[in-house]
Amino acid sequence: MLVCATTLERPNLSTLKQRKGWHPHKLRERREKHGLSLEAAGDQLRHVARRGGLNVAANFQTLWEHENGNTYPGPHYRRAYCLMYKATEPELGFRLPLPAEEAGDLTLPLPSPLNPAATDDAAATISQGLDRVSDHTQDQDPSAGDALKARVVGAWRGRAMSGSLGTTTLVLVGGYAGSGKTEFARFLGDVSGWAFLDKDSLTRRLTERLLTSLDGDPHDRHTDLYLKEVRPLEYKCLMDTANDNINCGISTILAAPFISELKDPAWLSRLTNRCKARGVDVAVIWVRCDIDSMREYIEFRGAPRDTWKLAHWDEYASSIDTQTSPPGVHLTVDNRLGAAISIADQTREALRRVLS
To answer: CB within 8 A of 15, min separation 6: which ones?
Structure first.
């Protein structure tokens, strides 16, 4: 393949020095080992990215820039490369490995297929009940309604087979902006089938309109106006929605910073006690990340609500603790350098291959 001479730039040595463990030649070696041209690798990368919901253009010039060290791949590119080559970031030369990554295989073991439980009678009862409440006098496609009812019965059967009918769990996934908490919470939802609620998705538009009505900046997330007048309402909406789910016996995963909440042992104690009285278990996950990776992701997503953080980065960074988890956390996920999200990607892809 011929590349225009004007594009043959020398690697940016200052950039190379800033990225410890970055060895671009490993990416090229991995592609050549797979017998792929730059164009073919781009085609595969776009396919993998679409399947994983990643924002990747992947033209051959971009791949060439990555392999020659002129441009360091962004977060979604690195995730897509790892999925395509079935490798970790350190193996592809993007960075140095964390201690846990030096062991080698980082994908989780896959569960054995479940044996069908004796739930046929109960499933038939649900099916008959849905049939009895269906108004067959309406001019509707009966096959579509039957398919929906079958899915409802199938969902119940899956819960029965897994023994989760009598166990409802509320999972709080917290972490600082850009830590990867939303991605990890979404991964938990993918593999568990539990409901997933993200605070920003649930409240952002209302938050922006409320701040505007209060003569504030719709993207404010740091002044007293937001912290005292708006933020408590955001979390109230999130928790009220979660309560609606768990009252129906639906295990639910919440993604939000939960920074102030988890620093207050009384808040978590009240929540745990209220849930325990209803037979609901509460689990708290904290997603830990390093400051440079958080900034990279915040810059990458380009959300207006992050404008103040980026403009006052040193001030913001000095206010957060990246070394320890808040009290009451049951599990800390180590997403330094994006390691945990890479594992989640690999595991999700492995499960997709098994189930397909």
So the answer is: 69, 72
Whether 179 and 284 map to the same domain: the answer is yes
Does any domain span residue 124? no
- Parent domain of 39: 20-96
Q: In the 8-state DSSP scheme, what is residue 305?
A: G
Q: Are residues 197 and 335 in the same domain?
A: yes
Strand partners, 252: 170, 195
Give the pLDDT of the chain (356 residues) as one tens digit per residue: 333 333 333 344 434 446 889 999 999 999 999 999 999 999 999 999 998 899 999 898 999 999 999 999 999 999 999 999 989 899 999 999 888 776 654 444 544 444 444 457 777 777 777 777 677 777 777 788 888 778 878 877 777 776 666 689 999 999 999 999 999 999 998 888 889 999 999 999 999 999 999 999 999 999 999 999 999 999 999 999 999 999 998 999 999 999 999 999 999 999 999 999 999 999 999 999 999 999 999 999 999 999 999 999 999 999 999 999 999 899 999 999 998 888 888 888 877 776 66
Examine the domain organization and report whether 200 and 287 are in the same domain. yes
d(CA 189, CA 162) in angstroms, rounded, equals 15
* 168-174: strand order across its sheet: 195-198, 252-255, 168-174, 280-288, 331-334
Name the 3-class secondary structure at 173.
strand
Buried b (16+ CB within 10 A) or exposed e, 75-89: bbbbbbbbbbbebbb
Instruction: Please identify, among 52, 69, 96, the residue that sits at the C-terminal boundary of a domain.
Output: 96
Among candidate residues 147, 234, 250, 244, the one with its CA nearest the CA of residue 189: 250
- Of 64, 96, 128, the one marking the end of a domain is 96
* CA 139 remoteness from chain centre: 41
Rg (C-alpha) for the chain, rounded Å, is 24
Q: For the domain that residue 204 is a member of, what is the CATH number? A: 3.40.50.300
User: How far apart are alpha carbons 328 and 331 in whole angstroms?
Assistant: 9
82 and 181 co-located in one domain? no
Q: Scanning the structure block, which residue is given the tokens 């999972």?
A: 171
81: CATH: 1.10.260
